Amino acid sequence: MAGSEAVPTTIKKPKMSKDKKKQYIIAYIFLLPWLFGFLGLVLGPMISSLYLSFTRFDLLNPAEWVGLANYQEMFQDTRWIASAKVTLTFVFVAVPTQLIAALLVAVLLNKKMMGVGFYRTTYYLPSLLGGSVAIAILWKNLFEIDGLVNQVLAYFNIEGQGWISHPDYALGTIIILATWQFGASMVIFLAGLKQIPKELYEAAAVDGGTKIQTFFRITLPLLSPVIFFNLVIELIKSIQVFTSAFIISEGTGGPINSTLFYTLYLYQKGFTHFEMGYASAMAWVLVFVLGVMTLVIFFSSKYWVHYEDGGKL
Amino acid sequence: MDQSTKTSRLLTHIFIIIFGLFMLYPVIWMISASFKPETLIFSSPGLFSKEWTIDNYFTGWNVVRNTTFGQFFQNSFLISTIAVIANIITCSMAAYAFARLKFPLKKLWFACMLMTIMLPAHATLIPQYTIFHNLGWVNTILPLTVPKLLATDAFFIFLMVQFFRGIPRELDESAIMDGCGIFQIYTRIIMPLAVPVLITTAIFTFIWTWDDFFSQILYLNTVEHFTVPLGLRLFLDSQGESSWGSVFAMSVLSLIPITTVFFIFQRYIVDGIATTGIKG
Q: Boundaries of each ABC transmembrane type-1 domain copy (chain B) (predicted)?
């Protein structure tokens, strides 16, 4: 809008018509809520949090410039290192297992059979419910020493233990909870599978390809754009997991930091210790790492994502 | 159909059903446990019980001092409803501008909008908190609702832009012939035709807002403002493990709104995920 008056004087063209001007104004009225939100709640805060990451800030006193101190401190902070490890372990285990489960079940359900809609709903339900505090509470109970899991194990004469309170297993229970929610990715895979032309499978059958061959030679390559999409979405989602870790560890990230997810530690730093400069620095490291991982996936996609139209997006 | 395909089909069905039951068993077990007397909940891993009771629901409902879960539900519903209405109006306005109108800097703003979709909330968290703190909005519903009034859920804008682009432009043109302006095209052509994407937006806004534990724990800190997830957490902390029956009862209740929305609008949800997945 700012440039609209300058245009007619610099370039010798007929004056911008009143209609056009009016149109621009109306367009900006439609855009206004978003524009306010973007400038005031996204862009402004982004810049400000970048600045705060170089300061010591506790909300009540003015921020005090400390240069790179927050960033340097992180690499000596054993809890920070633990939290980075927990989140990376989680991402590298939970994302692939979830996607594999989603893909296998999607292939199984991609048939014309009775009750397929019902099955699809059943498998989708966990991802609808799984993000809630209620399910996190249930999970905590399931894996406790006298919980359902150990009762079932006792049936088979296996002696269980307090999975939640053991530092080697606590993270595992949260990974299982994440894998349990494969339904949303499954629905996206199902939509992708429907797009694969039937003729390809028929041709493969004529050529005597086995089911496993067809899966690896036809289904997987043709589904690769969807795998790519799901991978990016799940990466962004899992690097930010908070609720389940918070509830299951009662906000501590224990035992022995084994469920100290990155976002949980960021929350503790920012809102329990009020070290908001440090928390901002942590946030920017998160943005940076997520950005790098996403870029790696994007650039590697050339080699493994197969587009029907030759790669035009 | 020959015998071997028949058998293999049957086996597929059996596998799918057993695996599905296995997955949903914990939830079904929680529902059954919420109706069992406290002492019988952990007596066996099965679903059945010698005695059934609804006492857990009464105890759970009134367990937090000076308030009830009714208050928490009211707060959750208020926040979620405002979020739904706000997202439908403001995201569709922005999407309409991006999909249909011409204006300076359009490409720049559109790129900005796309970038914010993938931006983790943590990047803006501390300054946002500082702003809301300075405005005196902490411990009110404003930090949870005002961002929705300012269309900060860029994902939905993107979703709507994709949908709006699919609505034939001839409809706009004939509306202009009939004397409609830009506003009327939005209210009379675009919005009525965009009902499916608006419903998808409404459902996901509702579910995500209802479950948005992180923002709620950040901004709401006294019991009378607590939402259902915060109420559950408080309950768990204060009760310890002595009363799982009522914890489960309230957990079950907390899942009902989401489940209901899901079953009413199931078609839109599944189609919504599928189409966004492909178009994304």
A: 73-265
